[in-house]
């Protein structure tokens, strides 16, 4: 922790220095507000993620003025390779790259600091400070088991960007569902011999991975991010009245058995550290987005796509939307700020709903076979798949009943 005394007050207190929190803090600090950015870890720090940066991430990074810095560090990628249960493949072009979150998040934190935000770590959020119904700050404890008791920081506004784990939302009284929308497991494997062989973002659907998918993403320096994810883990199986059970490590092992490049990677490469898991909060569901004095941003608000598991770009976007609500309604009543922030998130909801529909391919992997088969025969369908990546096409046109019917007869 820095030697400087901990502040006791600020204009805006941003809790969580991931992509959403750092993006929010940067925009607010740029506008001249006194912003305190707090995280429970020192930076640089690891974060379990697929590390893929798709076009919405690139757009947000440009807006934050850090695209060139990230691009200089990241591994550029030209395609997503989709592989179906029967082994059919299609390479979907897109503006893509890969950068481990340990590096990406550090870039974003430093950008917020350059803009004038003050960073304080490691502090663990315990509870909001409340006057009546309004949040007026937060109480923290040192997160490194060092000496020191709780510390209170007052603020005109608090932005909660604590990620997918429910503790922050619960403490703030905004958690509607404690179970995650999905879960994922990933590891880093160093394997220079495969650098020229695995050059795409590889996503694999298979009946043994039903409910999710596996992936291999090439990162800089001969490193590969390999993992398996399960979406819809919070749902109750129809007619069974119980949550679906899935051993993620077994799913990861199955991925390495059914996808030959994964098997080669694990056999020839050297695992870096442990294989780690993390929850996902998807589709803008599972928690409320505000209360008087407090706004929610990032994965705490559910900004991950259910279909792809991608959430970095939308997390940054939601952080910027929170900042815009605070700046646009700077002297307005709480209700006006809340209304603007929630309206901006609701405007994104239809897009998340479409990706939720598209996630049925995770439950029914044969759909991937069908779409891949048709895309290999139709440049128009391949362009449509690329448009899904670029967010210029509706994913529901590929994976709804109506979309599949049209797909068969185009």
Description:
- It is a single chain.
- By secondary structure, this protein is α/β, with parallel strands linked by helices.
- It has 3 domains: 9-47 and 103-178 and 283-358, FAD/NAD(P)-binding domain, CATH 3.50.50.60; 52-101 and 181-279, D-Amino Acid Oxidase, Chain A, domain 2; 365-409, no CATH class.
- The chain is built from 14 helices and 16 strands.
- The strands form 2 sheets. Strands 1, 2, 6, 7, 8, 9, 15 and 16 form an 8-stranded mixed sheet that branches. Strands 3-5-4-11-12-13-10-14 form an 8-stranded mixed sheet.
- Helix 2 (55-63) packs parallel to helix 8 and helix 11 (366-377) crosses helix 12 (379-390).
- The longest helix has 25 residues, at 334-358.
- 49% of the residues are buried.
Mean pLDDT: 91
CATH homologous superfamily (4th level) name of the largest domain: FAD/NAD(P)-binding domain
> Tell me about the biggest sheet?
8 strands, mixed
The total strand number stands at 16
> What is the CATH C level class of the largest domain, in words?
Alpha Beta
Ranges with pLDDT <50 over ≥5 residues? 236-245
N→C terminal distance: 60 Å
CATH fold naming of the largest domain? FAD/NAD(P)-binding domain
Shape field: globular
């Amino acid at each position: 922790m820095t030697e400087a005394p901990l502040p006791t007050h600020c204009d805006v207190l941003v809790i969580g220095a991931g992509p959403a929190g750092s993006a929010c803090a940067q925009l607010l600090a740029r506008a001249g507000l006194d912003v305190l950015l707090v995280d429970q870890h020192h930076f640089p720090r690891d974060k379990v993620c697929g590390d893929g940066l798709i076009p919405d991430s690139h757009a947000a990074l440009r807006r934050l003025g850090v695209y060139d810095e990230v691009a200089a560090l990241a591994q550029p990628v030209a395609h997503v390779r989709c592989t179906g249960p029967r082994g059919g493949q299609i390479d979907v072009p897109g503006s893509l790259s890969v950068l481990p979150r340990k590096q990406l998040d550090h870039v974003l934190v430093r950008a917020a600091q350059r803009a004038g935000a003050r960073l304080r770590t490691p502090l663990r959020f315990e509870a909001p400070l409340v006057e009546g119904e309004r949040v007026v700050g937060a109480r923290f404890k040192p997160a490194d088991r060092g000496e020191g008791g709780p510390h209170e920081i007052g603020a005109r506004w608090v932005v909660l960007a604590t990620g997918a784990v429910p503790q922050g939302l619960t403490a703030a009284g905004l958690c509607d569902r404690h179970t995650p929308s999905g879960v994922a497991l990933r590891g880093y494997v160093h394997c220079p011999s495969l650098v020229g062989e695995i050059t795409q973002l590889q996503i694999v659907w298979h009946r043994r991975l039903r409910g999710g998918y596996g992936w291999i993403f090439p990162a800089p320096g001969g490193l590969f991010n390999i993992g398996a994810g399960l979406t819809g883990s919070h749902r109750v199986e129809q007619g069974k009245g119980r949550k679906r059970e899935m051993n993620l490590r077994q799913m990861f092992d199955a991925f390495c058995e059914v996808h030959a490049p994964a098997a080669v990677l694990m056999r020839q490469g050297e695992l870096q550290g442990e294989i780690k898991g993390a929850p996902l909060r998807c589709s803008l569901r599972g928690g409320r987005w505000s209360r008087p004095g407090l706004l929610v941003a990032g994965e705490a608000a559910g900004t991950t796509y259910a279909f792809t598991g991608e959430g970095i770009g939308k997390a940054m976007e939601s952080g910027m939307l929170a900042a815009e609500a605070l700046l646009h309604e700077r002297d307005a009543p709480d209700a006006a700020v809340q209304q603007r922030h929630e309206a901006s998130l609701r405007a994104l909801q239809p897009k998340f709903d479409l990706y939720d529909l598209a996630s049925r391919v995770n439950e029914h992997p044969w759909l991937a076979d069908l779409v891949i088969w048709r895309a290999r025969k139709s440049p128009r369908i391949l362009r449509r798949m690329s448009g899904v990546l670029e967010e210029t096409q509706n994913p529901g046109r590929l994976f709804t009943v109506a979309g599949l019917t049209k797909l068969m007869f185009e």
